[in-house]
Amino acid sequence: MKNIGLVLVQPGPRAVHEPLMSGISHGLEETFARAGMRLVTRVVRDSSAELDVYRYWHASGAVDAVVLVRVRHEDDRVTFLGQLKIPFTAIVDAVEVGDFSAVTVDSASMMRSTLSYLASRGYSRVVYVKATEDTVLSDIRARMFLTETESSNLSGHVLSAELTAEGASEATRLLVTESDDRPDAIIFDDDVTAVAGLSTIQSLGLAVPGDVAVIAWNDSVLCQSATPSITALSDQAHQIGTLAANCLIDSVSTGALTIVGAADSFIVQRASA
Amino acid sequence: MASTIGPSSENTRSAVLDLIRSGGVVSRVDLVESSGLTAPSITRIVKVLIDEGLVIETGFGDSTGGKRRTLLELNASSRYAIGLSLDDARLTYVVTDLAGNLVGRLVAEGVRDAAPAALISRVAEELGTLLVQLDVSPADVVGLGLARAGQRGGGVPRGSLASGVWGDFEVREALETSTGFAVVVENDAACAALGEFWTGRLPATKDFATLYMATGIGCGIVIGGSVYGGASLNAGEIGHMIVDINGPDCWCGSRGCLEMLAAPRSVVKRAMNDADLVQSLRLTGTEAELRTDFAVIARAAAQGDPRCVSLIEESANYLAAALLSLTNLIDLDQLYLAGPGFADAGSIYYRIIRSRLENFAFVRAVHSVTVELSEVGLESAALGAAAVALQSELTPHRKAAVAT
Description:
The complex is a heterodimer. Chain A is an alpha/beta fold. Chain A has helices at residues 19-34, 47-60, 76-84, 107-120, 135-150, 165-177, 191-203, 221-225, 237-254, and strands at residues 3-9, 38-44, 65-68, 88-93, 102-105, 125-131, 155-161, 185-188, 213-216, 231-233, 259-261, 267-268. Chain A has two domains: 3-106 and 236-264, 3-Layer(aba) Sandwich (Rossmann fold), CATH 3.40.50.2300; 107-234, 3-Layer(aba) Sandwich (Rossmann fold), CATH 3.40.50. In chain A, strands 2-1-3-4-5-11 form a six-stranded parallel sheet, sandwiched between helices. A six-stranded mixed sheet of chain A has the order 7-6-8-9-10-12, sandwiched between helices. In chain A, α5 (135-150) links the parallel β6 (125-131) and β7 (155-161). The longest helix of chain A has 18 residues, at 237-254. In chain B, 42% of the residues lie in helices and 18% in strands. Chain A binds chain B through residues 3, 5, 13-14, 16-17, 19, 22, 26, 29-30, 32-34, 36, 38-43, 56-57, 60, 62-63, 220-221, 224-225, 238, and chain B through 90, 99, 101-110, 126, 129-130, 132-135, 199-200, 292, 295, 299, 343-344, 346-347, 350-351, 354, 372-373, 375-378.
């Protein structure tokens, strides 16, 4: 086994470099390279093009095994790769684990610790701003968020917004100008949306974290450089990539189904929550 | 872009292609206006570009009373460019389409201590495999841009592990022979700066500098939309800015150079003095594992190990001093940090450099100096190299302005 493949679906022209995927790729690439293998990444526009790539890789023999990301419930790619007999390892949420090799990420547990962090600081009306597009991970988190808030003393709402600075700004404006039930804490799906949400809250004359607390689901230097700096879930992307590469190498060499859990992200406490 | 284009046919064709590329979707009338050429000339040149498959007609624009205007755009998937960054720790290949969009990339084992001939044949093999994996025909590849550390004019290359053997080796010719592609070689820091443009995050007129750290440290300085080259195209060797006049001797013959105090080699060297740290992180201290050792230290620092944080902070403090001097000297307001040296502990470097610039930039009362970690950090050099290949093969009229 020498050539490993990864397909990234990127509808926009230049959106290949979002921090989470970059970090995962870095971990994968580094680990495969050290094992004398190499990772090819193919960028495509949509999911049907993704299946075409697997079909082509199978026919040409140009790729020996695949890493699968953003796995959804009953994902047809899992079945398809099985039919083609291409070995693969998936990066999945713990709730989507199946009879295939995978690195699992436990969003439920991370959501629980995020909410108990907020509760311990006296916040009680929490909103999770989820992405309208690329919904696989965001949907899972939204579900966890609702389950977890229901079983606690927090009131929880989910709002969908486009995962861009503009989308987050718009959503935040909507949330904080609703005078009757203004949230006192907002969890954003990533760093870019958290920064946009933060500045929108401030532009409306409210204080962070005094009036509204802000948490980013993915950490980055953007969170670090915002004023106030943004509390975020730690970046575990590199570690997930490393685990996935090792998981694929192990499962192919032993032929055994290998499932490895990634360590949970922890809260990087800064000034915004 | 100049408002008039000279008559030389190759340059004219290239300049019109560039107007279409930068304009997105344009009509022939737009091209007449923006180029200053006559309508018959534009019609003729556009016909050649369409025949070559570089440009396609995409539909009709608004009617202006008479005949509706046919719209033109770049046929992005008609040609491809390859960018390759030669680095001790990893070889990064990117393939982009004609518009510079990333089609795919391959990351393979780094240069380490490979002999040049062996490395060149590995590159040819990996490149062949990559094109098959991406289903790209070699006939559609316009060229290959190679980003590497090194000096032009047969002198000493920047502190790469392979510097000794690489100095006299004609890498461009060897690669052209083994791959069959036209090859352009460019400094990795200059490529990284171009990569920043290429991802479309900056207006083309903005002045900025990109500090690039791999095994050595270089800097791409972009002034008025072009990379500043200097007298011999060797500008940007910030690694040999003196940051301690009583500092250690440098391999370049000087002493107290930034590279001796801040580059991965110096961080690993300091770490090797701490026996506990060497044991707990399993550092090797060997030349061959230099970059791996550095990555291990950087990751431990990012996870908060206080000994590693202080090692990285020391390196960052020297970089901050050099960048502050550079900023004061040429009055910049935008800096980028790029390259594999920032992949693991970029946030620590970022914090220290930003704070130094905020508090001490000479012009701080007049304007702020922004520093950013490059989003395409790990592959900025390869992306920039692909851009150089595209420009050099397709729009050579800009070569002097950008690809120097």
